[in-house]
Amino acid sequence: MRIRQEKPFDFVYNSITEMKGKHGDMLMDFGILRLAKGQKEMDNEDKERAYLLVKGEVVFEWQGNIVRATRKSCFDENPWCLHVPAGIEVSIKGMSEDSELTVHKTDNERAFEAKFYMPDDCRSEERGKGTMKETSTRTVRTIFDYGNADYSNLVLGEVIDHPGRWSSYPPHHHPQPEIYYYKFNPENGFGYAELGEEVLKVRENDTVKIGEGMTHPQATAPGYAMYYLWVIRHLDGNPYIVPTFLEEHLWVTKPDAVIWPDK
What is the pLDDT of residues 234-252, one digit of tens each? Predict the structure, then answer.
């Protein structure tokens, strides 16, 4: 399902999914926090939370820590992200005229140490490189997953799609719910998101819900780079580790694959 954002977000927390409300099948709260200069947001909710800076300049405060973070471009720079357990008070203050963060919340009774991820902490990979005639070469950034944060009920990262290329490919699926949130460069760009047998046109600030078993490759229009934030909610007793790929399409990833017009 696509959730279209028809107008700019307000300078406040803009709720998109809610665990006990709209789109509750995602099992997590997801929204966009937009801050003007001097505007402050405080939160000590009894949920695991992650705050990822998409653009702008903000000051994070938690447990006596104060960190100033600046991100001019989510396309060219790795993210800053604060990840805290339930009950920890967090303050975020806007320092630029317009700052944007994605906010992620879910239930988690585990007590874990708060972690602030700086750009150098993010694992960034060029996936697809050297295969498929570079038609699925993209940048995949993983902030935290089951490998480095097995105490979390979330997995969080970003993908940068190169213009005219594919990502989340070959088609794959998993039982855990996932959310994609989109940006384009330039902003009037567009792309396409597959959800099983359905294909959706996506634009700036759109959100797509990915349910159990839905394949979800993405394609970007030529001339436009596509960014999407991805967040997965582990299922109780069934954490997300690796997806299930459609075997019929795996052949394209082999370095010696013969792809038309190769002879």
Answer: 999 999 999 999 999 999 9
Domains and CATH numbers, the chain: 2-253 (2.60.120.10)
Provide the pLDDT for residue 263.
85
- Model pTM score: 0.97
Mean pLDDT score, 10-29: 98
How many C-beta neighbours within 10 Å does residue 258 have? 9
Three-state SS string over the chain comes to: CEECCCCCCCCCEEEEECCCCCCHHHCCEEEEEEECCCCEEEECCCCEEEEEEEEEEEEEEECCEEEEEEECCCCCCCCEEEEECCCCCEEEEECCCCEEEEEEEECCCCCCCCEEECHHHCEEEEECCCCHHHCCCEEEEEEECCCCCCCCCEEEEEEEECCCCEECCCCEECCCCEEEEEEEECCCCCEEEEECCEEEEECCCCEEEECCCCCCCEEECCCCEEEEEEEEECECCECCCCCEECHHHHHHHCCCCCCCCCC
pLDDT digits (tens, 9 = 90+) for 197-224: 999 999 999 999 999 999 999 999 999 9
